[in-house]
Fold this protein.
Amino acid sequence: MATEKNSNGYEGLLPLCLRWLKPIFAKLSNKAVKLATMTKKLAKDDSRRVVHAFKVGLAISLVSLLYYFKALYDGFGTSTMWAIVTVIVVDEFSVGGTLGRGLNRVMATLLAGGLGFGAHYLASLGGDTGRPIILAFFVFLLASISTFTRFFPKIKARYDYGMLIFILTFCMVSLSGYRDDEIAKLALSRILTILIGCCFTLFVCIFVRPVWAGTDLHCLVANNIQSLALFFQGFGAEFFRLSQEEVSKDDMQKYRTILNSKSNEESLTNLARWEPRHGKFRYRHPWKQYLKIGSLNRECAYRLELLNGYLKTNQFQMPSQQIHGPFKEECMKICSESSRGLRELALALRKMVLPLTAKSHIEKAKVAAEDLKSHLEEWRFEEVNNAMEIVQVVSLASLLFDTICCIEKIVDSVQELASMAGFKAVEVQSSVAPEQQMDLQDQDQYSLQPSHGAAVLLAHHAITIDEQSPC
Amino acid sequence: MATEKNSNGYEGLLPLCLRWLKPIFAKLSNKAVKLATMTKKLAKDDSRRVVHAFKVGLAISLVSLLYYFKALYDGFGTSTMWAIVTVIVVDEFSVGGTLGRGLNRVMATLLAGGLGFGAHYLASLGGDTGRPIILAFFVFLLASISTFTRFFPKIKARYDYGMLIFILTFCMVSLSGYRDDEIAKLALSRILTILIGCCFTLFVCIFVRPVWAGTDLHCLVANNIQSLALFFQGFGAEFFRLSQEEVSKDDMQKYRTILNSKSNEESLTNLARWEPRHGKFRYRHPWKQYLKIGSLNRECAYRLELLNGYLKTNQFQMPSQQIHGPFKEECMKICSESSRGLRELALALRKMVLPLTAKSHIEKAKVAAEDLKSHLEEWRFEEVNNAMEIVQVVSLASLLFDTICCIEKIVDSVQELASMAGFKAVEVQSSVAPEQQMDLQDQDQYSLQPSHGAAVLLAHHAITIDEQSPC
């Protein structure tokens, strides 16, 4: 009886446990699948992330050789750790980030090391009682000042890490000096190990598939202009509910990422300014001009956000024929010319050549907008029964006009960048009819010419420059 | 002759030097003045920055006591440095930032310390040859994985620093173990000194004039709503060029900071989630709802950016009387009601009470907008000579209507927040006429009542709750 109960009890316990564990396992496997999907997506979206992870692993493995070889380790002793720490904290995704952090770390360590020595010397003049008081005063003073300095916008943007390392090293050197008389050796080995760490990191960062923040910024701005173009390309057909769908809805919505691109653009600009000459970018490339273009892109995107509202709401009633006819024609023209102009601008920026034809497309769009305006003025309103019928036509036209003015400013600022950075003059030799120019970047051929200042020469020999594009 | 020349030469050298140094001194003094102005401005804009700088100085000075007292120093030896380093890298502006970094540091150190031990033990099984290979493999693997993990958006937002410290500590423990057999002691003193450093930092951070990221976020969102209100308060008068100037131009432009507020709001939300109960905010305050309100604020600000365009351009021609009359009346009503509704919403959010009357103001604005729409429909267009005369009126009306829909969503999401966070129901007892309600936050009296769910009770006893506002 007792054994039966017992065996019953055991039989009952196992299924009970299983029932208990099943949802936990289900939850765990669910999480694992989610994690795997996320990992795959992250790696697929930008394969450089995987490369970066391995690069960091490589740099740390390389620098840890200092530990494995006794001859190297004996030179620095426990300070060898600083080389490892340096690699870990300095190795950033882009070359600009790594260089910026590395320079910040080295310069701050040198400066703070020197000041730490000074403080140590001054404190030693104070005798046994005065020494801790003088040291504490210096530490408090410099910590407070350097912490406050980190609130200065310019310092926060480029030297924030340096200020942190400055106060850290200062405290290290001056306080260690209180307990250890060999601070000269300590400071020297710290500097040397930090330099070694920086060298290893920079070596791996620059020579193993480097990621340049400058190139990223350049391509980001060019892609954002392309996104604006895609919106216009699809807007006309979408608005008048034409059957042909030139652009997918997802492509049209790409402009939305521009709305909140400011902080990304600013941080990339700050990183790009650390970078040396690379690819077609020289050391003092006018990075700040990208901020200007980016801010104009955003102003344009704000307007697109409203234009997009016209697509979403079903409130819009197609106006009657006498308005619809001319309105549609001008509207489609504005959209197609704006889109073409922006696409050529994006392409020229990508290829780093002078945008020669973009302006003329925008001018055509502007003319179409003026035509629309005069059409609106000519209309006999007695012909229209319902005023609301034209309310939305009019407000849309006004918004389009406003947007074109905004695009014109983008074109001007890209031209400004082109002349600042000395982009070459290149003539677009489009081999396809304008209607077929679905994706300019794949089909167009460019002819490269020597540029004389801003003057544009005609093409003589056409070469494809696709492989020269940094994006 | 020679002496004369010499003396002439000396006489010539001194002025030469002075002439040389003068512009340098002028430049330096110019820079110094600029620096002083900037410092003064930074300190004046937010006096908590100065307090923070002194707090960091204080925390470092306190923790450096470990160095000055021999009994304390002897316990940890050179590991004492980790306490200093911890204070410097963990001490952030807000309590949330400090807590987040501190927890990240402690947890990552514990976890990586344990794993480092494990790796050390496994490597020691490999013999003299296998040891460095096994160690290098572990270091490479964990460094790569943890670096890639930092690309996950959720981890980047909250555990980025932890991942850095994880790989740092793992390398430290496992590699030190290769050279030093006393790693148990090393790991223990590292953990203890980090804990001590965190305790000192948190003590100073929380008990000396704490800065709460949650409160900052709450006030930022409330202020942004207030900025939207200020724009509407001034827009009507500015647009119709009325002499009375209700709001200064600078106040009207405050909405522009909302356009790029996303990253700031996101980082504050991430910090606020670390914070314990403080003031009127409990531990699990619905911080994420602020992101929703913030994003609606931005959508509204995009529209304000266009409305602002109507003020800037001088293109706008005042329409003739038959349009102007009713248009102006409705327009002014829309602006004043929107402004009032938004102001009451901002005030309610500031005081953390249910926004009871905001919705009704927005409803009134919507009614006015509908009236305007029907007015537009009723107009006989034959009365109007020039179609362009009404083009801008119509597009402005359409934009205003669109904006009101946006404001309505803001009101709804704030009400959602109020019910999620259990704001109390409070009746506005305005003691001034609506026209005089220039600055609600200074003049209004609120009556606090017990709330029964979402039900609103009438006021019985009125108390001023100004001192309870977290902003």
Notes: Residues 2-45 of chain A form the longest helix (44 residues). Chain A touches chain B through 77 residues (CB under 8 Å).
